[in-house]
Predict the structure of ABC transporter.
Amino acid sequence: MRAVGKLGFELAGILFTVVAFWIPFYFIIVNAGKDVPESSLLNLSLPSSFRFWENVKTVVEARDFMLIRAFFNSTVLTVVSIAILIVLCAMAGYVLQRRTDRATPVFNFLILAGLIIPPAIVPTIWVMDGIGIFKTLFGLVLVEVALGFPFAVLLYKGFMSVIPREVDEAAVIDGCGGLRLFFGIILPLLQPVTATVIVLSAVTIFNDFTNPLYFLPGSDNVTVQLTLYNFQSQYVTQYNLLFTNILLITLPPFVLFLIFNKRIVSGMTAGSVKG
């Protein structure tokens, strides 16, 4: 009886995955290969004439190769943000896990508050404009780091609990200073959770739509998600080009997620053995 129930749950999970993910993905692929009249029907039928490569060429060349510029901006934004996140969050997680004093509960509360309290758009723009980083890539990097900081710190803090304190003590006895201890010994031990932070943050930042729209306006600063506006307007939408654009900007994070899927799971569960 238990075997039948387990099989039923597995089939239900497979069915849910097919309905929630693979059918929409198939819908994007088939409509990306159609012409404008066929794609406007928005159905799951195969195209009568396969025009995928023509649509890709049109999307890439649209508005003076805006998609290429958007890929460059999104890549720089993602790489720089992740590099800062790894260093800052690993150091913060290390300190919060190793030190236990009166200020520790306050810092833990602030980290949790960062996950709960939604960001305020208008005050953030006012502050950024006041210090001269509004409409700059550096300003958007700081926003992405601030938004991803609480979750990454919790991951690092949980993973840090499985690293014995004796490692720190032995390194100090051998003459390691604080920075050498962290970057030479502790940070290399954090590779599993670092891989998790890299993949999750890369997918989130690369696919971010609202923050570049608010904090980095302008055609020269466009990111990949904002290129979706190239093929839709108030009265006309070129669905074949729109779906082709969606497919092109979805593939990089999708491939990254598939490659590092096991590392994500191991990194998120590694700190659950010891609290």
